[in-house]
Amino acid sequence: MASITIAAPRWAALARNTNETSIQLALNLDGGDFPPDTDERILNLVKESSSSGHAAQTSKSQTILLQTGIGFLDHMLHALSKHAGWSLVITCKGDLHIDDHHTAEDVCIALGYAFNQALGSAAGIARFGSAYAPLDEALSRAVVDISNRPYSVIELGLKREKIGDLSCEMIPHCLQSFAQGARITLHVDCLRGFNDHHRAESAFKALAVAIRLATSKVVGKEGEIPSTKGTLSA
After folding, report:
1. What is the pLDDT of residues 120-164, one digit of tens each?
2. Is-contact 198 137, C-beta < 8 A?
3. Could you write out the DSSP letters of every residue in 187-231?
4. Predicted pLDDT at 51
5. Coiled-coil region(s) at which residues (predicted)?
6. Do 194 and 188 touch, CB atoms closer than 8 A?
7. CATH among 3.90.550.10, 3.40.50.2000, 3.30.230.40, 3.40.50.300 for 11-214
8. How far is it, in rounded angstroms, from Cα 26 to Cα 111?
9. Residue 161 DSSP label
10. Which residues partner with 58 through β-bridges?
């Protein structure tokens, strides 16, 4: 009788604390439960919040809760995690009395670190992913390479100073910070649209779908590194 190999969970939990921000985070790239070493405080918060709040959603396959202190950032990360198929909880207490920079940047760096840790080896995954996502009149394209070479080109063409409490200049910087922490190559372009909320949200949704494709497991390629070099760790 053939044995059945159960794949290791692709999940991570971490805390990132500096003089500027205090972040707790748990991520499961395939949805479902959070890792056993997840901070009890955020697990309790998930239980208490359930599906209430502007960036909280629980379904049979995913649990999502974002509390960064910046509503529009929560909204973008909610869209990212929902359409990438992740379970994700993030809490952050940052120096918002100064401005939004440290909170937005550090949250996305921490999310990138967690993504990289959760993914582990690139063996057996598609590696590349690309997607288009529309939101009404806006259309964005995202292209991802799980490359271990952090690089990003982000062109969103945002015109407003702020969307909610998030500076428009920070939105591409958030994507750049995620790519840095995740050690991926990332290109995101908003191709058209006149509403900045729509432009930004379509970009995050396109990224979500591209990441889901890039991290998907390829049947028959189990254990194989998708690189002519034979490694993506050097």
Report:
1. 999 999 999 999 999 999 999 999 999 999 999 999 999 999 999
2. yes
3. EEEEEE-S-HHHHHHHHHHHHHHHHHHHTPBPTT-TT--SSTTS-
4. 59
5. none
6. no
7. 3.30.230.40
8. 9
9. S
10. 63
